[in-house]
Design brief:
Layout: H1 2-38, H2 41-66
Helix pairs in contact: 1-2
Domain Calcium uniporter protein C-terminal: 2-68
GO biological process, one term: mitochondrial calcium ion homeostasis
Subcellular location: Membrane; Mitochondrion inner membrane
Length: 68
């Protein structure tokens, strides 16, 4: 039972880590596209600030809910 729980915990941790990496890579790509091709930094700077702040709030909420 202990080994099964350990495997499940490791699998979930791996999924969370890779999911976070995919989210950050996607966010970087979208923000880079919007900054250098669609708009300018003057427009995107406040957008990136609020996205970063929102992401930090979401990660803190995850921590509070899961205690991880």
């Amino acid at each position: 039972v202990k080994e099964e729980l350990s495997r499940k915990a490791e699998r979930r941790t791996t999924w969370v880590l890779w999911g976070g990496m995919a989210y950050m890579a996607t966010q970087f790509g979208i923000l880079a596209r919007l900054t250098w091709w669609e708009y300018s930094w003057d427009i995107m700077e406040p957008v990136t600030y609020f996205i970063t702040y929102g992401t930090a709030m979401a990660m803190y909420a995850y921590f509070v809910l899961t205690r991880q």
